[in-house]
Specification:
Helices cover 31% and strands 28% of the residues. Strands 1-2-3 form a three-stranded antiparallel β-sheet. The radius of gyration is 13 Å and the shape is globular. The relative contact order is 0.24. The model has no long low-confidence stretch (mean pLDDT 90).
């Protein structure tokens, strides 16, 4: 999973990270959106960006967590 994330978020990428709570071990849970377009603004990433969390699920590199 780490290698996949490093590869996907290589430069140039604009990244939005939305955190909303911590899990039972105190680690933040986050939604990560990215766009391989330099200096994209928030609206562009929200509209055209890729949802990294879903990619990890689709690749079998993560499991859905229901806190």
């Amino acid at each position: 999973a780490r290698q996949f994330v490093v590869h996907q978020l290589k430069n140039p990428a604009t990244i939005i990270i939305k955190t909303y709570k911590t899990e039972k071990y105190g680690r933040y849970l986050a939604d990560v959106f990215y766009l391989k377009k330099k200096n994209a603004n928030f609206q562009t990433v929200a509209r055209e960006g890729i949802y990294l969390n879903q990619q990890l699920l689709d690749e079998g590199l993560a499991q859905f967590y229901q806190g």
